[in-house]
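Progress note, project year one: complex with zinc ion.
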Amino acid sequence: MQNYCIIFEIETNPLFYKFFFRRLSFFALFCTIYLKNELYIVSKINTTAMKIYPLYEGSYSIDKNHVFKSFDPIVDLKADRKGATFLDINPFLLVTSTDVILLDTGLGQRNEAGELKIFDNIRKVGYQPEDITIVLFSHLHKDHVGGLATTVGDHFEMNFPNACHYISKKEWELVNSLQKYTYRFKGFEMLENSEHIEFLTESMGMINDQITYETTGGHTDFHLVFHIKEGGEHVFFGGDILTMPEQVGSRLMSKNDKDPKKALEVRNVLVARAAAEKWLCVFYHGTHIKTGRIIENNGNFEVVEV
Ligand SMILES: [Zn+2]
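Model obtained:
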């Protein structure tokens, strides 16, 4: 009888419920975020001919000075970072019948063991860094090139030694003339004569039978986007011009673009083309949706997750 009374008292105490449900919702949030990230790392999109793996590197906020700060939704509050942009970083691994392609290389973050997260993620999906044959760079902001090379003493070693790295020549020349490290990393110019780098000198062109590129500008002066086609599938990598699903159908200009007006114009043209030609878009900074197709409904565009 005594025990019964104690239990009854606890169960009818509103504080008990408040405490219990707060803990329960906290646990549910933790499970959702943990599973989301784990699943994204191991998830695979099989198109008719290609396999696509998002390689989630982490969640971040960027302030007005372009400083990246890790953002953990479990412990950090968006309200504490007023004016910041919140995003994930997702390089992509794309496997065609002839190549293992990496789309940008992330910030170059390392795990607790000191290993590059991108290496860890590539291995989780069954490949090795040495398997990469092509690396495509949309532009040279540091959250896109941080995983390109590792400093060893007074020189760099390429992280993907068997890959040909494609970079816009004009973007390269421009950023190496600036003393600003929102672009690339220190000493980047030392890679100028690397046999591993192939500079793209035309405003648009073909890399091989499957890959074409276009210069869009807008986000940076010589920002590139890439199209990879095989077996009837058309994968589109929009870099930071079309970088998250929330930009689709939005009229908002972004303070993260160098020329916000041009970026918006280019983005809208790409969105319309993507919908008309059923491109499979990969979103480098997507948080909830990393890959999707854009559909048009009475002049309105939206993303359907794939
Ligand atoms: Zn950028």
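The chain has two domains: 1-42, 43-305.
The longest helix spans residues 14-42.
No further modelling is planned for this target in the current period.
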